[in-house]
Amino acid sequence: MFEFLVYLELIFGFILLMFGGDFLVRGALGFGTKRGISPLIVGVTVVAMGTSAPELVISIMSTLSGHPQIALGNVIGSNIANVLLVLGLPVLLHPIVTRQGGLKIQVHWMLAVTVGFILLCFLGVLSLPAGIVMLLILALFLFLSVKGSVPFAALDELTQNQDASAAHKGSYWRISGLIGLGMVALPVGANFVVTAGTSLALNLGVSESVIGASLVALGTSLPELSATLVAAYYRNSDVALGNVVGSNLFNILAVLGVTLMVADIPIDPAFLRFDIWVMLSAAIVLWLFAMFGAKIGRLAGVGLLCGYGGYIWVLFSG
Asked: Domain tally for the chain?
């Protein structure tokens, strides 16, 4: 009975995170359009919040509450899930093409940021200087995206469709309500997730890093999974790949960068032995697909899903 209630608390937390992120994005989009702010600036803000808000709030709250391994596991596990699960499942519906213009530049960034993060992990502790470097790299990436030097599919889609959004037709009261609801739902949902995650770790006899890299990471990857499933169904490969690449970049640069502004994160040796190498392998697989312009078909999808299943099995088998 206790374990059932803990899982229920975890699910409820994820629901609040999903709705909170959606409310915050719609409110920000509506505010930007009503104030006449540049679509590119609004797009960057919305993409950043929509991609990182759940992970960011969970990371900050878990670190401040004395559970930093949930924060780190969430980032690493989410980046693994984004490639192996979020891309592996949709291609069973329809193959994803990797020949879009600018995709090679995006995956170069993703792989470089992943390698840089891994090197930082061997310092033993992620601290304020590392966070500052991450945020500076994020600022450079967003600046180049706005200037058009680095194509960013998710940003392009938002700026092209901004005028068609129903959000800007609402009043300031409605916009304020959406932003307010988002700002309340996100921390409350994160608190449920962190509390349930630590309880599950104790109950299942596994480390908090395992829970962070598996259950918590899977839950925070659900928005990317749903968006990619829809994009694949409508054969929109740009959005599907843009969601994954953008999410992986923001998870490291924004989520960890901001979290390190408030507290240091020690590195669990278990991450150095296994998880970061799975994350790197997943990034290299996506990089290779993009470099060769290969189609990610059903057979590749099965392979990606088997890889994710194997990763989760190893985590819980010890």
From this structure: 1
